[in-house]
Amino acid sequence: MHELLPLAISFDFFNGADFWVGVGVLAGIYTVLTLGLQLNVGFTGIQNFGQIGFAAIGAYVMALLVSDADWSFWLAIPVAIGFAVCVAVVLGVITLRLRADFFAIATIAFSEIVRYIAQNARGLTHGNQGVQDYVATWRSFSRDVRHDVLDGIGMGGVEFNQMPLLIVTWIAALLLLLLLRHLTKSPWGRVLRAIREDEDAARAMGKNTLRFKLQSLGIAAAVGAFAGILLALQTPNVAPDNYLPLYTFIGYAVLILGGLTSWWGVAVGALIVQFVLEATRLIDFGLTESQTSSMRFIIVGLVIILLVAFRPQGVFGKREEMVLGD
């Protein structure tokens, strides 16, 4: 039978709660990461390909402050996010005056610079070994959530190791989604749309377009840094390979799937992409491990190609919102 069906799938795994919780956690993290891209790409018209670089900065600064400087975990989080915003402002001042395609290339280079610094500045970042010993406070908080929240709804006896992180991630994702949705419906958000559609016209109306683009990039960096911190709580250490440029492009896949300017589409797109990525782990392609990994992304790519062919505006997007500034 196996010879007739080379693709063997373990359906039993789908019934395991850990599978769904794991998908939910990563989908929530990608939702947070992509909310920043939605603000930049969907509303401001700037092609930010360095979002994972801001995630790495947030994670590394938080982890280093806690593990090496003995800071409070809760204090290290806002400091790490603030540091990422400062880096974004400096990057934006230098690069936002460039042509759109040059800016996109510059942001890719930025994310790679961050990763190579993390990889090679071993005295500061611990190199490929990564930063460890920063989650003691989180583990204590996680136990409290299990006892105080999950016990209260009759789930305390179920061993969902990542359930507290799932709850925190999605609460944060939904709060950020609602906040950004409110901001983009305000006069400030209407200026961003004007910049996206015709920056020269917005400038002629007396708007300081560079300032607004810097604000958009800074907010996206803050959101991205927070996503990096959440990812650091999901992984055993903060290491360079956790923040590859590939993950920004997965964020773009989420954005395309959900639809430009659709905040709820970000959440739905993240759930779909992450489910496909995790579900394809269960398929036996009869290939090597590296080939199987590549095949998973090929499948995601095919899903996106089909979507672009039949519904280019995404699941929740609108065709009139697909026009981006030059």
Summarize the structure in words.
- It is built from 13 helices and 2 strands, in the order E-H-H-H-H-H-H-H-H-H-H-H-H-E-H.
- The N and C termini lie far apart (55 Å).
- The protein is an all-alpha fold.
- The chain has helices at residues 17-44, 51-67, 73-95, 100-120, 122-125, 136-150, 163-184, 187-197, 199-204, 209-234, 246-258, 263-279, 289-310, and strands at 8-9, 283-284.
- The chain has a domain at 16-243.
- A two-stranded antiparallel ribbon has the order 1-2.
Mean model confidence by pLDDT: 85
Main sheet properties: 2 strands, antiparallel
Distance between the termini: 55 Å
Per DSSP, the total helix count is 13
- What best-fitting shape do the alpha-carbon axes yield? globular
What is the percent of helical residues? Answer: 55-70%
Radius of gyration: 20 Å
Q: Report the structural category.
A: mainly alpha
Q: Give the helices and strands as they follow along the chain.
A: EHHHHHHHHHHHHEH
Number of strands: 2
Low-pLDDT segments, ≥5 res: 1-15
Q: What percent of residues are in strands?
A: under 5%
Q: Reading side by side through the largest sheet, how are the strands ordered?
A: 1-2
GO molecular function: branched-chain amino acid transmembrane transporter activity
Main location: membrane
Transmembrane segments: 20-37, 49-67, 73-94, 101-118, 163-180, 214-234, 246-277, 297-316
Organism: Patulibacter medicamentivorans
Q: How do the strands and helices of this protein lay out in sequence?
A:
Elements: E1 8-9, H1 17-44, H2 51-67, H3 73-95, H4 100-120, H5 122-125, H6 136-150, H7 163-184, H8 187-197, H9 199-204, H10 209-234, H11 246-258, H12 263-279, E2 283-284, H13 289-310
Antiparallel strand pairs: 1-2
Helix pairs in contact: 1-7, 1-8, 1-10, 1-11, 1-12, 2-3, 2-4, 2-10, 3-10, 8-10, 11-12
